[in-house]
Amino acid sequence: MFSLIETMRLDNGEVKRLSYHKKRIDGAIHHFKLNAFDFEDALRSYVEKNGLYTGIYRLRVEYNNDLKITHDLLEDKEEVDANVLKMAPTDSEFLEYKTTVRSQYVTTTYPFALYYDSENRITEFNIGNVVVKEADGYYTPRENGLLNGVMRQFLIDSGKIKIRDYTLEEFIELYHEKKIDIYLINSLREWVKVNLHV
């Protein structure tokens, strides 16, 4: 039996982008026909019980009609190394919803991987979405049936990033010519610069 997952940034007692996390887990609960629960109240109670009002923590919720919440201190990473891999085909519901089914998110030489799909379009990282910084702004690919991350949607809604697709060949050429910077984004770590090995 798999569980739904939400991994959140708790910053001095505040869950960042809480409404986005709630919307995503509520949608997954509805899709997988699980019992609804008060997500915000469960988090509030957990923070209060554990006195997590100072510092930055990773909060992790797992839910499959049983609720498990854990936390640990978050050590921020400023840069990571990643390579590029083709994503293996998998059941789309385990790409569109965040669950403990993670077999599709394989890596090889590096702990982080940037994927491309069967049409050679850049899609996402194994633990987050991709943002490309060009001279005229910041871009992220269309969802292409993959996970629309909380941080990604927040940045789109606030007008900080725009949608643009990249083919693998175009992406690698731009990177080699130093015309783009690449970032891994997620709601936990926010922005992390990527050194891509291609």
Automatic annotation (TrEMBL):
Record keywords: Aminotransferase, Lyase, Transferase
Listed InterPro entries: Aminotrans_IV, Aminotransferase-like, BCAT-like_C, BCAT-like_N
Source superkingdom: Bacteria
Keyword Plastid (UniProt): no
Pfam families, alphabetized: Aminotran_4 (PF01063)
GO terms of molecular function: lyase activity; transaminase activity
Protein name stated in the entry: Branched-subunit amino acid aminotransferase/4-amino-4-deoxychorismate lyase
Organism: Nosocomiicoccus ampullae
